[in-house]
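Researcher: Last one for today. Full complex below.
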Amino acid sequence: MKISKSEVEKIAHLARLEIEDSQKEKMVEQLGNILQYIDTLKDADVDGVRLSSGVAAMNNVLREDTPEASPGPAVTLANAPDRDDDFYVVPRVVK
Amino acid sequence: MEYHELTIGSAIERLTRREISAFELTSALLTRIEKYEDRIGAFITVDKAGALEQAKKADQDIAAGRISSLTGIPLALKDILCTKGIKTTCGSQILENFVPQYDGTVVSKLKNEGAVILGKTNLDEFAMGSSTENSSYKVTKNPWNPEYVPGGSSGGSAAAVAARFCCAALGTDTGGSIRQPASHCGIVGIKPTYGRVSRFGLVSYASSLDQIGPITRDVRDAAILLNVISGHDKLDSTSARVDVPDFTKALDFFEKGSLKGMKAGIPKEYLSTEGIDPEVEKVFNHAKQLLTDLGVEMREISLPHTEYVVAAYYIIAPCEASSNLARYDGVKYGFRDRSSEDLIEMYKKTKSKGFGLEVQRRIIIGTYALSAGYYDAYYGRATKVRTLITEDFSKAFETCDFILSPVAPAPAFKIGEKTDDPLTMYLTDIFTLSANMAGIPGISVPAGYSSKGLPIGLQMMARKFDEMSLLKAGYGFEQNVGLSRKFPDL
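Model: Here's the assembly. Have a good evening.
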C-alpha cells in the first residue's frame, strides 16, 4: 500500500515526531516501499490462527506484594533534564 | 604468547596459574585499543580508569584465592546495556548524557564473577539496523576490511572481538543482531532462547524479541559466558524459570570426536531464497558435508511460512518500538529541546532532533500499523503469522535436533552501499529473524571466507532452551572446519 504525505504527517503527529520538510519526500517514498512489501502478509492464510503477542514461556507472572525501599528522588531524578527539588520541570501545559 | 591472543578460556588458565596478571592483560588490551581504535571505531566509551581498577581488584582476589568464573577477564558491552555510572547511549543523541543509576542484571552477573568491563561498544541506534552505520556517533568498520560493514546491530561488539580488543563481548539480538555481525566478523555469536537471559537493564527495542547473548572468539567462550548470564531474574517477568545446565559440558560431548546421533534439518525454503550469494551457498554446502562427515544425519525439512517472516517482523518490531520509544520525551532523562514553549512542541522537537532517521522511520511504521483502522490488517495479522512461524519450527523439530542455514544471504557489504534503501537492508535479515519470532536459540560459527577474504558464518537453530545442542554441534564443527586464518591483522 502506498502512503500519502498527509498520512505520514498525521502519523508523525500521533507519534510526536516532526519530520523536516527536506526529509519528507524521501520518507514518504521509503515508507511506501516498505508498506508495499509488507502487503505480502495479505497472502498468508491466517483463518482461525490465534494471535501470539510473544513467545515467553508463561502467561501471567505473579509475586507477593511486599513493600521494598524505593531508590528515592536523588536516584530517580538524577538524569532529569530539568528539575526543581524533587520535581521534574516541563514547559507550560495549560495556556 | 601475546595478551590479545588470549580467549576467555586460555586467559582464565594463565591468570589462575598466575603466569599473567589481570592488570597486565587489561593494560595490554587498552593499549591495543588506543593503537587501533581509530581504524575500527568499535567503542563509544572506553572506561580505562574503571577497567584498570577492576583489574587490580581481580589480582587481589586471585592472590587471596578468591577466583570466580571470570575473574580478571576483560570484556566489552554493547552500549544498550545499562552500566551504573557509565553513560549508556544506545547509539543515539537522545541518550547522549544518560548515566544509568543501576547495572543491568547481566552486567551485575559479570561483575559478580570478577569480569573487567573495558567499555561500551557501538551499535545501530537503539539496535535498529544490520550494519552499525546507523549510530549517531560513528560508523564501525569490519576489522577484516575497513571498507566493509561489520554487520549489526551489535557491530561494535563483534568488531571489538574480531580485532581482539577484548576477550569477548555481549551483544543483543532482536532479529539477528548478534549472529549476523558474528558471521560478518568471523567469530561466534549466540542468541539464547527468549527468556533464558534476563533483559532487566537492556534498553528495550522490541520486548518480545530482544535477547542478550555472548559474542566470542570460540564456542568454549560462548559456553562460559552463557553459564554466567543465564537464569531466572525476578526483575524480568519474561525470564524463564528453567534450569540452567553447565553449558561447557556440551564441549565434552564432542571430545569423543564425533557428532553421531545428531540430526540436522535443512529448510528447503531457505536455499531457494532469491538473491543468495553463490559464495555463501558454497560455504554452506561445504559445512553441510563436514557435519555429515562428523556423523550428523541430514534431512530436508520445510518451514512453509518463511516467505512471510520479513514482513511480519517489520510490523511486530516497529509496533513494539513505537511503544517502547515513546518514553524519550525529554522529561525524565536524556536530551531535551529547550527552544520549545509548550509541552507538545517540546516532545516533538526533542524526539525529532534526538532520534536518527531509521528510528523515526520505525516509530512511524509502528504507529501507523497500530493506528485505528489498520491494527487488524497489520499488527493482528503479523502476530497470527508469527504463530504459524512458531508452529513451523515445532513441527520441524519433531524430526531434527537442529536446523542448519546460512546466517546472511551474502558476506558483509560495503559501507554506504545500502544506507539509502532500508527495505533492501531489511531483506538481508531473512535467515535470522525467524529464531526471534519463534523464541528459539541460534548460533553463528565461522565457516569460511568469500573470495575477497571476508568471513562467512554458519547458523544453527535449536528447540527452545536447547542451547546445548547448538554448542555441541558448534564445537564439533569449529574443531574440524580448519579455517586458515582465524583473525584479521590490524
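Chain A touches chain B through 54 residues (CB under 8 Å). The longest strand of chain A covers residues 83-84.
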